């Protein structure tokens, strides 16, 4: 049984400062329908460049034929992937990981935390929620980036907010950008956000993850209510 399946590049698009969106067409392959839980990731490979693991940024769709990814440059594999043209081939394995337990959040409130390219699996959660928004209570996204130009999916924020998903953005290194919004790390901006009856989903740098866990625990949220996607 072949674990690797050929996919076709559908699009490669700039996503934000230092980030690129890669869209793969999986139509006609055994991969269709295998992405079942937001937060799962897959192994992608190119000949002679090895493989890497990438979170799927699009929501699970039983019959969907496209997977979207957010890539951060810096490795030979990623640097090659972002230079591919539509029609190029990328091999992929089936999705792995338990993902986020979105089903457990039904009827309750959800706190989402992401930094940088960590927004990728969180976007999968958000798009899944939008498909059935009434099944969830309050949903708040805390999204941190290094600079104001480093927010991926910025053109989608108004769709998220129109679905009553609150978006709180903060920048850690505004420099001379003229940024007028929040400054600092995401865990510093919980404010008076109520955490009872909530689940928290986190993805980002380890420092942010631990800082958010500490802040939520200090507010009384049980550790078992805080979830990573691995």
Keywords:
six-stranded antiparallel sheet, 4 helices, six-stranded parallel sheet, FNR_nucleotide-bd, 2 domains, NAD-binding oxidoreductase, Rossmann fold, globular, 230 residues, Elongation Factor Tu (Ef-tu), domain 3, alpha/beta, OxRdtase_FAD/NAD-bd
Task: Describe the protein in words.
By secondary structure, the protein is α/β, with parallel strands linked by helices. It has 2 domains: 5-92, Translation factors (Elongation Factor Tu (Ef-tu), domain 3); 102-228, Rossmann fold (3-Layer(aba) Sandwich), CATH 3.40.50.80. The protein has 4 helices and 12 strands; from the N terminus they run βββββαββαβαβββαβ. The protein has helices at residues 76-81, 119-130, 157-162, 206-218; strands at 5-16, 19-25, 41-46, 50-55, 66-72, 89-92, 109-115, 139-145, 165-171, 182-183, 198-203, 226-228. The protein has a 6-stranded antiparallel β-sheet with strand order 4-3-6-1-2-5. A hairpin with a 3-residue loop joins strand 3 and strand 4 (50-55). The radius of gyration is 18 Å and the shape is globular. The model has no long low-confidence stretch (mean pLDDT 94). It comes from Archangium lansingense. Residues 2-102 form the FAD-binding FR-type domain. This is NAD-binding oxidoreductase.
């Amino acid at each position: 049984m072949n674990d690797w399946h050929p996919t076709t590049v559908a699009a490669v698009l700039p996503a934000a400062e230092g980030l690129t969106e890669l869209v793969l067409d999986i139509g006609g392959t055994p991969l269709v329908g295998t992405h079942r839980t937001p937060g799962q990731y897959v192994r992608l490979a190119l000949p002679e460049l090895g493989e890497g693991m990438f979170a799927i940024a699009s929501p699970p769709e039983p019959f969907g034929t496209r997977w979207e990814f957010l890539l951060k440059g810096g490795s030979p594999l990623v640097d090659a992937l972002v230079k591919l043209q539509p029609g190029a081939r990328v091999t992929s394995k089936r999705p792995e990981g338990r993902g986020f337990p979105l089903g457990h959040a039904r009827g309750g409130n959800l706190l989402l935390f992401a930094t940088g390219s960590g927004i990728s699996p969180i976007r999968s959660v958000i798009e899944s929620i939008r498909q059935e928004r009434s099944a969830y209570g309050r949903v708040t996204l805390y999204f941190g980036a290094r600079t104001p130009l480093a927010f991926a999916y910025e053109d989608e924020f108004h769709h998220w907010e129109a679905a009553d998903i609150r978006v709180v953005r903060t920048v850690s290194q505004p420099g001379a950008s003229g940024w007028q919004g929040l400054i600092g790390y995401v865990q510093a901006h919980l404010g008076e956000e109520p955490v009872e009856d909530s689940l928290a989903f986190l993805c980002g740098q380890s420092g942010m993850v631990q800082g958010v866990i500490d802040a939520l625990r200090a507010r009384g949220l049980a550790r078992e209510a805080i979830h990573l996607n691995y």
